[in-house]
Amino acid sequence: MTAPSEPTPGAPAPYTFTEQEKRITLIGLMVVFLLAALSQNIVGTAMPRIVEELNGFNLYTWVTTAYLLASTVMVPIYGKLSDLYGRKPILVFGVVLFLVGSALCGIAGEPWLGQFLGGGMNQLIAARAVAGLGAAALITIAFTILGDMFNPAERAKFGGLFGAMFGLSSVIGPVIGGFLTDQFSWRWTFYANLPLGLLALFMIIAKMPSLSRRSGGKVDVLGALLILTTTIPLLLALTWGGTTYAWNSATILSLFAGSVVSLILFVLVERRTPDAIIPLSLFNIPIFTVGNVASFILNMAFFGVIMFLPLYMQMVLGVSPTKSGTSMLPLMLGLIVTSIVAGQIVARTGKYKPWMIGGGVILVIGIWSLTSLKPDSHLLDLYWRMFLVGMGLGPAQSLFTIAIQSGVSLGQLATATSSSQFFRQIGGTIGAAIFGTLLMNGLHTELPKHLPAMPARRSTARTST
User: Using an 8 Å Cβ cutoff, are 88 and 210 in contact?
Assistant: First the structure.
């Protein structure tokens, strides 16, 4: 790995890498990416068992929301830190923190912890937040390194493989999660991250080149705090609205108002900060703005699907955790196929817009078809709908980030990549909160209507008469 003799003043030196360094780094990044993706998908099929054992159905969505919120807030911070201190140290730190969080998740609710933090469910939520703080570095730095080492055509090709890796993790994650939950305990869905994480850590430390691309500046601490004060009240309002508090209650309205005020302050601060955590000038680039808005919306839909389909299959259709995991295969098959095909074709043609638009249209059709499912629907009715959703999601898994990277300079690469991941994840976080709220509101409204028809209620009524 060598640097050119005459780098552009004020810009990071564009390194060149040997083919061996590229191969080793690519393998290491795929392991890291698989680790991050598995952490999002392996838990879903275990959640019904977790909330049953820890008595926390009212906190169901917070296990995912805490993870997504913690990782979302840290994404742009890690992007800036990798500019200041290099990609590799930040990636190592993220993996270590993620492993610590995973281990803490596994011990949540153990009897010897007692009522620490208010009980097992709260312990799990806090541990998931710790894991999320580490996971934020994994995907963000992985895509940034991909942009550092490969030209745009290669990024599209390998980005498609990364999307397929996400699809693979989404296939094996629910299956592994369901198997471990059925055969051992839901705790092993978290412990399973440890061996893969240690492998990733070894490959990063021992095999990956230093990637010591550093630039001047400082961390935008105030901007990071304002991101926190904007997103947390918003998510609390979306999660509590209509369930814990009425939508027009003072609490919910205050949270929304606080989020809006914080957002306005964030924009004012970022306009005047030379080292802004999300430079507003990036929004002058059309592909950056349009790509992030579309990615935000698609990720809302994605998390709404993967979070609650296992719940529907287990609690409505009555399938086991293992079977609900294998039932996700059609969705992930569609995702893997279109992700790889789109990446390969875009690498040859350079035209990514038709794939993005086509994927969005197919996704809308697939999600609309899911709305016709009923309590007595057969799994085959679900499978073809899930395949459509997967086909629509596939191109979005990598092409949005690759397109955004192609529209910015090398000096803006880390910031643009981390900003892209931030908008993706904030979309998923808000989607999880919104769909969780819709679920709880629906239960509060519809469950009392159907309780008299339940067998247990009819039996009790006959006994009393």
Answer: yes
Average pLDDT, the chain: 76
Put simply, whether the predicted model's pTM sits higher than 0.85 gets the answer no
Q: What is the pLDDT of residues 13-64, one digit of tens each?
A: 445 667 777 777 788 788 887 887 777 777 777 887 888 888 777 777 778 7
- Integer Cα distance of 280 and 401 in angstroms: 18
- Burial of 387-404, coded b for 16+ CB within 10 Å and e otherwise, reads bbbbbbbbbbbbbbbbbb
Helix, strand, or coil (residue 108): coil
Query: The tokens 């305990």 sit on which residue?
Result: 185
Cα 219 from Cα 201, distance rounded (Å) = 25
CA-based nearest residue to 49, from 41, 57, 59, 38: 57
Tens of pLDDT, residue by residue over 117-161, are: 777 788 898 999 999 888 888 877 887 787 777 776 676 667 667
Please provide the DSSP assignment of 240-269 as one string: HBTTTB-TTSHHHHHHHHHHHHHHHHHHHH
Sign of the Cα torsion 351, 357, 363, 366 reads negative
Average pLDDT over every residue of 315-337: 74
Q: How is residue 123 written in tokens?
A: 């312990």
Query: Amino acid identity, residue 363?
Result: L
Arithmetic mean of pLDDT, 233-247: 76
DSSP state of 111: G
In the numeric block, which tokens belong to residue 190?
């978290």
pLDDT digits (tens, 9 = 90+) for 88-108: 888 889 999 999 999 999 888
Fold category of 19-211+277-442 in CATH: Growth Hormone; Chain: A; (1.20.1250)
Contacts of 148 (CB under 8 A, 6+ apart): 15, 87, 211, 213, 413
Length of the chain: 465
Alpha helices in 184-320 (DSSP H): 188-191, 193-207, 221-240, 250-272, 286-315
| Every domain of the chain and the residues it spans | 19-211+277-442, 220-276
